[in-house]
Amino acid sequence: MENLERRDFIKTSAVVAGGAMLSSLPLSGAYAAGSDVIKVALVGCGGRGTGATFDALSSGANIKVVALADAFKDNLDSTYNTLKEKWQDKIDVSDNHKFVGFDAYKEAIKLADVVILATPPGFRPTHFEEAIRQGKHVFMEKPVAVDIPGVQQVIRAAAEAKRKKLNVVVGLQRRYQTNYREAIKRIHDGAIGDITSGQVYWNSGGVWVRPRKPEQTEMEYQMRNWYYFNWLCGDHIVEQHVHNIDIANWVKGSYPVSIQGTGSRAHRTGKEYGEIYDNFALELTYADNSVVYSQCRHFEGIQNRVDEQFQATKGRVYLSAGGQAVLYDWKGKEIYRHDAKGNPNPYQQEHKELFEAITKGEYKFDNAEYGAYSTLTGIIGRIACYTGKVIKWDEALKSTIKLGPDVLAWDAKPKLLPDTEGFYAVANPGQNTSLYI
C-alpha cells in the first residue's frame, strides 16, 4: 500500500478483488428463472433493518421476504411479527428460514435474490463480501465499515460486484433525494462556480442506551449497546455524520487529501456511553486547497442542526434533508429554489430504483464505492480527533488496525473491556496514538 494515490487505491483494490474472492459469470437475470417474485433476505433485525424492509416492500416491486437473520432471537421475532402484521402475504418466512447467531447471515443470504444488510456496521464488510460472493444484489445501510481494513474489504467486494453486474445501493438516502439531486446537478454544471468552502452539520441529542443486565456476557452487553463501541459503530462521526460528510464529497466531486480536528467527551461521560466521543469538529482539506468544516455532537437540550451549506466563486448554496435547496449569487439573487412539494420519500426512493433495475434485469447501481470512501472520510476524521494529528488520506490507507475481536462468540472477549468500576478507556489526544492508526 506504499505511496498510493486515492485513485490508484481504487484501481489496486479492483485488481486484488479478482484473486481475493470467488468468481462467477456475470448474472443475466435478477432472480430465479421461472418466477417473477424477487426473494429478499434481511440480515440485521433492528429498527433500521425493519424500516429498510418496509421501504423495500413499499417499492411496488413483486417482493417476498423469505429469510431473516440476527444475532439475537428476540430482535428477529420482533421484526417478523411487525412485518407479518403489516404485509402478511409478502412475508413468507418459515421457522427454518429464521437464522440466529453470528453466522446466521450466511444461511439467509443463500435463500435470497436481494439481501438487505442492516446489522451494526462493524459486520458490514464481511456480510457484504459474502453476499457478493454468493451472487446477490444488495441494499446495505451506511456506514459500510468502522475501520480502514474494513473499507478495503468493501472496496474489493465492490469491484467484484461490478464484475458480476450486481446492483448495490447504500443507504445514504440523500443521494436519492430530489432536492439534493437537483441542486448538486446545478452545482456541477457550474451555476455557482467552483466550490471554495463549506460547512456540514449533524448536531442532535444522541440515541438510546440499554442498561446492563446481570446475566449478560461482556460480548452481549456491547452488542446490545453497539452504538457506544467503535468496533461495532465507528463512533457517531462515522455512523451518523457520514450522511453530511458524503454530501461534502459529492458536492466537491472528490475526497479530502488531509483531515484535522478536535473532539471530546464533554456531556455524555457516564460508563453507559462506552468509549465514544460526544462531539467532533473537523477541517476536510481537498486537493484544490478548499476546506469543508464538519461538526457533529450529541448534547441534550441544545439547538439541533442537520444540514449543509457551501460557498463558491459565483455564489452559495444551502441544503437540508427537510427538502430545502437554494442557490444564490453573491448579490443575494436566487439562482434556484427547490420546490419539495410532492417529492418522493428518499428512504423509499432508493429501494424503488433498486428494485426497478432488478426487475428489468438492468445493472445500474454501484454505490458501494462512494459509500466506502465517504465512510473512510469519517473514519479518518475520527482518527484525527482521537490522535490530535493531521491525518493524510494516503497515509491513512496504510493502516492495518482492525477494531473487531478475533473471535465472535458470546463467551469471547471484545478487545476493549471495562475497568473495575465499569468505565471504558476513551481516546486521549496525544497519548497512545498508535492504537488508532
Automatic annotation (TrEMBL):
Pfam family, one: GFO_IDH_MocA
Boundaries of every Gfo/Idh/MocA-like oxidoreductase N-terminal domain copy: 38-164
Superkingdom of the organism of origin: Bacteria
Protein name (database record): Gfo/Idh/MocA family oxidoreductase
Gene3D superfamilies: Dihydrodipicolinate Reductase, domain 2, NAD(P)-binding Rossmann-like Domain
GFO/IDH/MocA-like oxidoreductase domain segment(s): 180-299
